[in-house]
Amino acid sequence: MPYRGVVLDVDGTVVRGDEPIPGAAEGLDRLADAGLDRLFVSNNPTKRPPAYAERLRRAGFDAHPSEIVTAGTITASYLAERHADDTLFVVGEPSLVEQLTDVGLTVATEGTDADTVVVSIDRSFDYDRLCAALRACADDDVTIVGTDPDMVIPAAEGNVPGSGAIINAVSGVVGRDPDVVLGKPSKPARRVVDERLGLPASDCLVVGDRLDTDIALGERAGMTTVLVKTGVTDDRDLARSEVTPDHVVDSLADIGAVL
Ligand SMILES: [Mg+2]
């Protein structure tokens, strides 16, 4: 089957921290040689596409910011479209707040007047922040938006907690689930992918290391899915999962077998 486009995950698929994953360069060359249009889609909500391109460059990969979509960009455009007039309270990193204010959204420092509470990875998250989030969400009319569901992220030192962990902490104390969790595999993320690649789903591959985000996105979109075993998923996870990739490869180096 001649594929025309590929959605590539970044962390655990192409890089781990700032280091390239062995075989990733080979795989990217192979995809380029096969003429596939590519889009890097990351559930990292903290970095803008230019910062992501720079991170990829440090790892030895050339990528243009226009080839990159992150949970931050998806969250900013979703909120600008649906909650433009809301006052936001953000449990997240300063770089996420900047991405939201950049598109004209209003972010309050206190949560008491918030219409929408945005919850995301926050490496300085603590008890006081959890108290503030609980107060901000006290009214049931307050919308809770998660940036992405990633429970852990593959970092240089091993896996570390991601947005999913903070979202669970907040929704646990508030006593209700978020109204929406963006990033892969959400519908808003699939829409962005669709708009940016502009190709029929059946002509596209999704390559990633996570079953519940990368592979689930591809499965729901109707794309051919490829799991790489260079990230967070091991054989045990795969055996237990209800999400089944079409192909499983050791690393991106083996993408030729799928093409
Ligand atoms: Mg990944």
UniProtKB/TrEMBL annotation:
GO MF annotation list: phosphatase activity
GO cellular component, one term: cytoplasm
PANTHER family: 4-NITROPHENYLPHOSPHATASE-RELATED, HALOACID DEHALOGENASE-LIKE HYDROLASE DOMAIN-CONTAINING PROTEIN 2
Protein name, entry field: 4-nitrophenyl phosphatase
Organism: Haloplanus vescus
